[in-house]
Amino acid sequence: MTIRVLLADDQALLRSAFKVLVDSEPDMEVVGEASDGAQAVRLAKERRADVVLMDIRMPGTDGLAATRMISADPDLDQVRVVILTTFEVDDYVVQALRAGASGFLGKGSEPEELLNAIRVAVRGEALLSPAATKGLIARFLAQSAPETAGGHDPARLDALTVREREVLVQVAGGHSNDEIAERLGVSPLTVKTHVNRAMSKLGARDRAQLVVIAYESGLVRPRAE
């Protein structure tokens, strides 16, 4: 399968560099370029993009608003958004994850990290920048003001089975299906089934949103540094 990538950044030079990199891969192709969020949303639908590399700060409709629009559109439910940011420690990153982004990556990341991010996002997995720690999202959420919280009621988790809660805790810890399977003594396929059921019950698009829900509901709490 060829991964269809849409580039959304107001800097043409950066888009050109990303395009050369992405198009050099045999399993990827750039299907469109957008200079603002509104154009990104429109092209994501028109060009049937699989992944949008989205800058946060753009004129007009910014990347955060565009991510929300993509996540809210049923016709774009298979589109994954990877936020590209100059500042990894940024409240916008958390807002973007809440809005439905699959993860984020610093613009200064190595080329292989960017390409890997695209592949990870397509698989529906949560993506943290390799430069970030696994507890980064947790710390962001802990620092967020109460009025900006996502409002996830702990009772929302009542729909999950005991095993699904156990798996959710592991997902929030940044562990892969294989790692979770080894920790819980089950097969990776079983873990994948539990993850998919948890996403369905909680209305999460992907693993990144599961991580956010796990912390905002209080199931998992940030570790003291």
TrEMBL record:
Keywords: DNA-binding, Phosphoprotein, Transcription, Transcription regulation. Residues 153-218 form the HTH luxR-type domain. Residues 4-122 form the Response regulatory domain. Pfam families: GerE, Response_reg. The modification 4-aspartylphosphate is found at residue 55. It comes from the Bacteria. SMART domains: HTH_LUXR (SM00421), REC (SM00448). The keyword Aminoacyl-tRNA synthetase does not apply. This is Response regulator transcription factor. It comes from Streptomyces thermoalcalitolerans. The lineage of its organism: Bacteria, Bacillati, Actinomycetota, Actinomycetes, Kitasatosporales.
